[in-house]
Please model this.
Amino acid sequence: MPTLANDLNYSQKIGALKASGIRIFDNKVSEIPGIVKLTLGEPDMNTPEHVKQAAIKSIEDNDSHYSKQQGKLRLRKTISKFLEKETGNYYNPEKEIIVTVGATEGINAVLFSICDPGDKVLIPTPVFSLYWPVASLAGVSYSLINTSQDKFKLTPQRLEQVIQEEGDKVKAVVLNYPTNPTGVEYTEEEIKALAEVIKKHHLYVVTDEIYSSLTYGIKHYSIARELPERAIYISGFSKSHAMTGYRIGYVAGPAGIMEQVTKVHGLMVTTTTDSSQAAAIEAYENGLSDPDEYRKIYEKRRDYLKAALTKLGFDVVDAKGAFYIFAKIPEKYGKDDMKFALDLAFKAKVGVTPGSAFGPGGEGYVRLSYASSDENLHTAVERITEFFEEGKNND
Model:
């Protein structure tokens, strides 16, 4: 086993980055025998059969050469059609859409493209713990806006306040909604009010709408409808079509910025995998209704888990999208969500993610993913109930 030479070191910038708290905790509890994990946002459904067959056919047809750097034109055209319905905007497939290696690569390419050192991005939290490490990697500063006092939503008043405090350094606002980890969704009126503030201050809005197909009792409203000239829209197929392993996402925005995003994308990955693109083409050309069945299943699970946890005394955030429950931990733990999650893992064999992994405002909460089987959810509820009834949480 090679040992690094004594006269070598590594990037201090990279060394200062922390690994994902979600993954760290998941790794810590995954080896517990018999544990039921509700930790990761990984759909338990299989990719639709017709989508899988499209990927297989791509391989059998020797579709194994570099596609265009922006992605296959046919896929960009079908994404354009989807986005016209989703956002009301026509995005030119030739100049305003690129296909990325998941939404994660898209977020990296965008933040590297829009900001210079000294610029600042605003990130409402709690939120998926990717955006601020990527900002750091890009050499950009950031401010995390704790939304816990506003029902886990960024209000226009709070946004205005932070912009006034930060001054001219602010370049962009990052939105993720429906939000991971809270499941909170914004109304059309709330999005319009935020758009007014963003426009007033001449900012970009980087909008990650990967869960837009999974909303319950509310229709998703993209901020790109309000700010097509300022919005950089990021999404993908991982959640809508249970395709996390295919690593296929996309970015859309005005041609003036997408030219730069395409450069960074090319330097990062060259292009995306042919067979994954073939699957994505099939998903959007013939499978736009596939998420409908998933949505019904997820909504039923959400209702079951929310009712069960509420009965046990948990204060549960009103989730109208994605596939997560964000619940306040028992008072005896204070805000120590890590201790509660570890107790639950080792004493009840149920894995949940500490809310502090998602930034300010997440402390004192845990995230439970209901992208798991009904059997796992029922087992988890039984074990959590036993955990409370037998006083294991009082050890």
Notes: The radius of gyration is 21 Å. Residues 50-286 form a domain with the Aspartate Aminotransferase; domain 2 fold (CATH 3.40.640.10).
